[in-house]
């Protein structure tokens, strides 16, 4: 294929939908880390399929790259997949936040048009550190970083703040903050008016 087509998604719109539909994942404070990861990846996998893309989990691009938690591909010609539309990484462990950024922004044969990283972080100051690292390493024109933390930075059972940063390479183009509450045992995300 001698042509290249850039498909930039409106990642902040995807974040808005993630926030508004979070309750449909039926997650509670009693769930462990694994259900959060699996349900969120499945949510984005279904979304990619509904948008007409071909989603794959633990995709290694035929062994050419490290496994991506989720990828959306745009086209297939009966031999090769083309147009890596989205690479999503979802991480629960605090000590793997920088590794997650490296997986999203590393050079590879098939560079994605869009990336999303969803990470649990200890506190707001760590978010700032990670955004600075991302600004120094991001070579992607359309990258969404979603940081889940709690407002006190300690002691809370579940995250209650979700900070989203849209990056265009080294520039933060847009930010949003959503909040989380436990309503009758199910976690809901919302934006304050």
Q: What fraction strand?
A: 25-35%
- Basic shape: globular
Class derived from helix and strand content: alpha+beta
Helix content: 25-40%
Major beta-sheet overview: 8 strands, mixed
Order of helices and strands: HHEEEHEHEEEE
The beta-strand count equals: 8
Q: Would you tell me the overall average pLDDT?
A: 90
Number of helices: 4
| Major sheet strand order | 1-2-3-4-5-6-7-8
**Which stretches of 5+ consecutive residues score pLDDT under 50?**
none
Cα distance spanning the termini: 47 Å
Radius of gyration: 16 Å
Salient structural properties:
26% helix, globular, alpha+beta, 193 residues, single chain, 4 helices, eight-stranded mixed β-sheet
Written account of the structure:
The protein is of the alpha+beta class. 26% of the residues lie in helices and 34% in strands. It has helices spanning 11-20, 33-50, 97-105, 124-137, and strands at 54-59, 68-76, 81-91, 114-120, 143-149, 161-168, 171-183, 186-190. Strands 1-2-3-4-5-6-7-8 form an 8-stranded mixed β-sheet, with helices on both faces. Strand 7 (171-183) and strand 8 form a beta hairpin. The chain is globular and about 50 Å long. The N and C termini lie far apart (47 Å). The model has no long low-confidence stretch (mean pLDDT 90).
Briefly say what this structure is.
The chain has 193 residues and is of the alpha+beta class. 26% of the residues lie in helices and 34% in strands.
